[in-house]
Amino acid sequence: DEDVSVNFRNRIKPFMLRRMKNDVLNELPEKIENTMFAELTHDQKNMYSSYLALAKDQTIRLLGEGGQGKMRILTLLMRLRQICCHPTLFDENYDKDSGKLELLIELVTNATDAGHRILVFSQFTSMLEIIQDRLKEEGIPCFYLNGQTPSYERAELADRFNGGERDVFLISLKAGGVGLNLTGADMVIHYDPWWNPAVMDQASDRAYRIGQTKAVQVIRLASKGTIEEKILKLQENKRNLADDIVRVNTETFKDLSNEEILSLFS
To answer: What is the C-alpha separation between 31 and 120, in angstroms, rounded?
Structure first.
């Protein structure tokens, strides 16, 4: 609570000097962050509602099993997140639209027409492949990097993108969230929210770093009225607590209380 937070901050104050990027790198341009919400399609909503009821029942039973139960709950939640991204990730026989994918394509099309260059991050490599196929249909060439991309090829792709070749770079959050300089981009889109906000911040910093000369827009996408909206709310709560003490780097799903987990299903 607030008293504990203040007490801890006072105890560590003599030993820690904290500096944020904006405090010490005054030459960096502006970073603009916002969230955009997509409506689930009718078929998505039906699938989501059906699985949500099943997952909630299983979660209530699993919460009494401790750490092992939490890992199984995480799998249930991942399935809900997949439906939000595109139901094909959940059911390969699904052959209809995804509200969030349509929003992304509209965003990317308008942004590239306006001269912006974009990084798109997702946790799900299968989702990035779906996005890649849709962009190809729209006549928008892109680069793609995941955990299978060799280190020498990662560097080559980064150099080509920064050199002005292609306007979109699709990147696996875990594979490309660190270690890349992609200041050729001036827009970052997070297709799906991750539990740890610091991981998403590190990914955004592929574009917002020394060498960037343009303002950078960071857009988080989420499906309205779903677990994704609740993840973003949890992120903000964790971020506010961390910013009051010290930079977050370990906040993950395993740190959530039973009450916080159950709130994801409300």
So the answer is: 16
Tokens linked to 84: 């939000």
Q: Give, for 68, the enclosing helix (H) or strand (E).
A: helix 67-85
* Sheet bearing 31-38, strands edge to edge: 31-38, 216-223, 187-190, 118-122, 168-172, 142-145
pLDDT in tens, 86-111: 999 999 999 999 999 999 999 999 99
Residue 258: partners with Cβ closer than 8 Å, 6 or more residues away: 63
Residue entry with tokens 């942004």:
111
Helix, strand, or coil (residue 215): coil
CB atoms within 10 A of CB 52: 19
Q: Are 117 and 170 in contact (CB under 8 A)?
A: no
- Give per-residue burial for 73-92: e unless 16+ CB within 10 Å, then b: beebbbbbbbbbbbbbbbee
Question: pTM here?
Answer: 0.84
Angstrom distance (rounded) from CA 202 to CA 194: 12
| Contacting residues for 44 by C-beta, under 8 A, at least 6 apart | 83, 84, 87, 96, 97, 98, 99, 223
Task: State which amino acid sits at residue 166.
Answer: R
